[in-house]
Amino acid sequence: QNEETWDFVLVSDIHQMGSEKETKRKKFLDELSKKGFTIKKIEDTKLFYGVRAPPQIFRKYHYLLGKPDSKLQNHSSPQNIPVTTRIRIVHHILQNTVTPDFEKLRDLIKKKVFEAAFPLHEKEEVREFLKEKWARWRGVFSEQPIEKIRCYFGEKVALYFAWLGWYTYLLGVAALAGVVTFVAGITLFSSSQVSREICEANTTVMCPLCDQKCPFWVLSDTCTYAKVTHMIDNEATVVFAMFMAIWATVFLELWKRQRAKVVTDWDLYGWDEEEEELAMELINNLQHDPRLYQHSYFRSTIVLLLVLLMIAVLIGIAHALVIYRVIATALFTQSSSELLREQANTMAVMTGAVLHYVTIVVMTKVNRRVALFLCNLEKPRTFSQQENNFTIKIFTFQFFTNFSSLIYIAFFLGRINGRPGHYVRIAGRWRLEECHPSGCITDLFIQMAIIMLLKQTISNVMEYLIPWVAHKLRKKHKRPKKRSMVLGEEEEAEDPCKRQWLRNYELNEVNIFSLFNEFLEMVIQYSFTTIFVAAFPLAPLLAFFNNLFEIHLDAIKMVRLHRRMVPRKANDIGIWLQVLEAIGILAVIGNGLVIAITSDFIPVQVYKYMYSPCVRENRTDVDCSTGYINHSLSIFRIRDFEPYTDVPEMLPDFDGDKIKECRYRDYRNADDYTYTVQFWHIFAARLAFLILFEHVALCVKLIAAWYIPDVPQSVKNKILRRKHSDLRKELSMMEYSTEV
Questions:
Q1: Interatomic CA distance for residues 230 and 194, integer angstroms
Q2: Quick one: signal sequence residues (predicted)?
Q3: How far apart are CA 407 and CA 398, in angstroms?
Q4: Which among 391, 390, 411, 321 has a CA at the least distance from the CA of 360?
Q5: Which of 103, 408, 573, 597 could form an S-S bond across to 107 if both were Cys, CB 3.0 to 4.6 Å?
């Protein structure tokens, strides 16, 4: 074995002799020496300590966790232990070595005794292969070398890339379906009866959109908007929403199979994390007592209340965005520029979406702090338990940060704003926004498109640029000055390790959440591609292209820009699987609600089958949705306006005195403004559709989950054969020993 391989490097500033920091550092290194570690010191602008663990540590590990038959032939040498395992064991020992002052490495780093501790990127052929074939932009469409990734970064990272690759692969199918839906919408662009009626309605006078300076307007002015709405909101969308609910289930079931195949090849199918952790603790310290499981209802209640409080804050932020949009609309409608006045609503939605993106960026940082604080309150037993608790909390917070504003647009916008003469107002002044006569779904479409595009462009560029720039800057700063040689130092200056250690030190540091951040980003993206996909059929396509880059972006960051991660062993993606399953159920509910409530699908169907000319006059020569628009607008008498509404300048072509009434989108009676029977018909139809859609979709999900087995037969047979041969071997050995 080459004597110059070092498992870990510790970096510290050069402290004064006899200072407190120097004593603490010495004590820590002495503890390592007692455990048999070899330590090599190199001095530069910083002090570097290379650490190499003694072979017996790996022998113990192999003895405790190796195959049962390898314990009998006691010749396992440390060379047989993979590098990833070596690094993991050494990392564990470094983190859990206690100095006589009862301080661990974590405390020493906090107190600035050490600056960093990291394993080295090596010049081994695996890394060179990854650098050339995988961490390159031109490898975008080639298959990922999962086995090689595992050998270099450990199982956890390899499983992340295996999952991401599989998700992207299946996104291709969803993206195709989304594009087909969208194209179907475009071909219907001008042919829809509903949008044709809006375009021809040049005598329908609509009520003003604001209280001052807003004229009456004619419905046909919004012809283009109506066409766009119908492009998104048609029968094809309903089918697509159903398809995506099933896709989400099939994707997860197929991933479970894929994961079983991969981890069986790695021999980790029945791996026991707890046993591994206990073995590591005992190798580090034979007198170690295990931390027992504990559960405190009091603590859980406190955490639950704090989580609910945080969610309330996030919903409050969504409310603030709503208020922003209301006030922005009011200000835009009073502006001097014609363009702003006419497009006030769209402008408010767009700037609102950009503002929402900014709150997402800011709140992500806040959410992380809060989730960590709550995790520490719970005092989890092990690191993996801490990670699970943290995952669930931060996902919940991120979900509300990303989606509360979208939920408002989808389900509340235009439903809680009252009617002309009796509007719901914020602080008694500003009217809440209302929906366009052709429906609210376009607002949802705009909001989702802007957020997804910004998240994918700006966030990805920052994610790559920040580490890249940081790396370049560190390189510039850390280049050591040529120091004047002191006598007897010539041979040390040319140390081959020095260059390698310095180069690793110049890379960006990684923390335990580096991989976690990537997962979180992908899971939020998965929510965007499934939950409101009925309103934005192009979401899977955007996600698909984003992921092709994402895989290589992450690869380049890990191999070229960041220090080496401490490899972690794992045999699945952990709690993320439950999170993805929860999103699958939310997707069914979300899409059901979008079609039942946001879209105009149900009102049009109710009209077709209950009120249309087809039903009333038994005519077959007309489109059944003829007359729908006129039917869906109520009449308002102008004399009933609130007293402080300035009835504004009239339309140029109309005579002011002739306009006695205007129309607005709702189902109310003309005399006393109460809801009509049709309103309740539609309400009942919406509820019935929602219940039907969700039950059918959930049943199909359950059938799909049952139909596709989680573990392929080949894997089951492999495990069966292995058990059989192990038992046979033991029995034959027993017979052999009794004969002897």
A1: 8
A2: none
A3: 14
A4: 321
A5: 103
